[in-house]
Amino acid sequence: MIYADNAATTKMSAAAIETMTSLLNETWGNPSSLYGFGQKAKEVLESAREKVAAVIGAQPRDIIFTSGGSEADNQAILSAAALGRQKGKMHIVSSAFEHHAVLHTLKKLEKEGFEVTLLDVHEDGLIRVPEVEEAIRDDTCLVTIMYANNEIGTIQPIREIGAVCRKKNVLFHTDAVQAIGHISIDVDRDNIDMLSASGHKFHGPKGTGFLYVRKGILISNLIEGGAQERGKRAGTENVPGIAAMAAALEEVSANMERNTTHQREMRDRLIAGLKQIPHSALNGDETNRLPGNVNFCFEGIEGESLLLLLDDKGIEASSGSACTSGSLDPSHVLLAIGRVHDVAHGSLRLSIGEEITEEEVDYLIRSVTEVVEYLRSFSPIWRDLMTGKKEFIL
Amino acid sequence: MALYSEKVMEHFRNPRNVGVIEDANGIGEVGNAKCGDIMKMYLKIEDDIIQDVKFETFGCGSAIASSSMATELIKGKPVSEAMKLTNKAVAEALDGLPAYKMHCSVLAEEAIQSALEDYQNRTGKKI
């Protein structure tokens, strides 16, 4: 089996599992309790906060643990909107290919009277900094742009976007769910005011995540209740999960250079191999790209059947086809970079892990090539393309 | 839980009657690339019997399985019977399809209807 869907979720690391199980067994007290056993859990929690903060160059007090990336995105955006509303600033700048946790939150705000500008992400899947600057108005209360895209892996010019926001005195939030643990992030260097992260994307457990909030920004609650997380996120903390997430993040960060050097090499080998398939195209910029992300469109075939046949060959992957999204439209990300429906249905995302081998990459190339060829052999679109009845798009 | 029934997966993995009939006397194509499904049916009809049927499909697993099953259900049958093939019959023969995939069986029904209409238009024979 070759698991090539690490952008969907990752396997928990041994360190994370070991941390989690030992806490479940031994340190299961409530961190809010005053006796020693509870306070021991509190220590574990605060140590996790320090570890997470250190990785992104933040202060521990600026980390709020959440149930994951979606909650962090919701809380960051709704908080900035609440602050904006108080000042009569009801405009938000974002991009067309954000995660739905961001886009759907913005939709909700639009219904409440906010105005949202979604920036074009261009064919290469990259936002242009001058366009961010132009989009910011006097009544803009927030710019929210993802650090790296979840489908096509393109890494945005976050530091420069952050600098523009700083200059214009507008809050800047980034959904760093796909980026953290895979590329270097520093909230000061990158001029980030708020950042969302999810534990299970870097070998931590599901149901964990955090929101970084720069000191001085007033955050509103999504969940009311007790005084946990400085009163900003009620509910007894998921101590084993949080500590396991911190252990996983610490480990991937310590090994980042070694991991990503290898991963980039494997990614580029995979891209080069898949490019040999006629009438295929890489989605997103080739260099400003997460070390593990490969995303292609293949003309004349549909993504779900591609995934099912790859599954038969022991390969787990994903697609932006409508059939896999449960809606009639293919991925909004592929449409945003200008892929038309016809080819967006034939997309494949392979998000490889840190430990993939050259043999495995070659097997991926061979298998995808075979399956694409097979599906094309009885595709009426492919026949029309080959007989000149229809023009190739790719 | 698997996405599809074993029957769907079996037809998807080993689709029956795949390909083209060069001297087909009834051809039908339905669906469009924008929605992600196209089915093309080729019929060879002699003496009001479907002597041969082949298909080409661009689409998801259930679209390919529905095409395959539909061809099996009409092969060797009189055209009058083929005309009555419903999407429900295709879906049932596949041991069911997920609700949001039922349109694949509808496409299979429509592709066959369309090929039969083409046959009527070409030959002037009423079915």
**CATH fold topology of chain B:** Sufe protein. Chain: A
| Largest β sheet strand count, sense and barrel closure of chain A | 7 strands, mixed
Rough outline of chain B: globular
Largest sheet of chain B: 3 strands, antiparallel
Rg for CA atoms of chain A: 22 Å
Tell me the fraction of residues in β-strands of chain A, as a range: 5-15%
The biggest chain-chain interface is: A-B, 24 and 26 residues
* Count of alpha/pi helices of chain B: 5
The first-level CATH class name of the largest domain in chain A = Alpha Beta
- Briefly note the structural class of the backbone of chain B: alpha+beta
Tally of separate domains of chain B: 1
Question: Pairing-aware structural class of the strands and helices of chain A?
Answer: alpha/beta
The whole-number mean of residue pLDDT values of chain A reads: 97
Strand tally of chain B is: 3
Can you write the helix and strand succession of chain B as a string? HEEEHHHH
Helix content of chain B: 40-55%
Helical stretch tally of chain A = 14
Residue windows where pLDDT falls under 50 for at least 5 positions of chain A: none
Proportion of residues in β-strands of chain B: 15-25%
Order of helical and strand elements of chain A: EHHEHEHEHEHEEEHHEEHEHHHEHH
CATH architectural type of the largest domain in chain A: 3-Layer(aba) Sandwich
Task: Report what the structure shows.
The complex is a heterodimer of chains A (394) and B (127). Chain A is an alpha/beta fold and 394 residues long. In chain A, the strands form three sheets. Chain A has a seven-stranded mixed beta sheet with strand order 2-8-7-6-5-3-4, with helices on both faces. The radius of gyration of chain A is 22 Å and the shape is globular. Chain A is built from 14 helices and twelve strands. The model of chain A has no long low-confidence stretch (mean pLDDT 97). In chain B, a hairpin with a 4-residue loop joins strand 1 and strand 2. Chain B is globular. In chain B, 44% of the residues lie in helices and 21% in strands. Chain B has a single domain, classed as Sufe protein. Chain: A. The mean pLDDT of chain B is 95. The interface between A and B is medium-sized, with 24 and 26 residues.
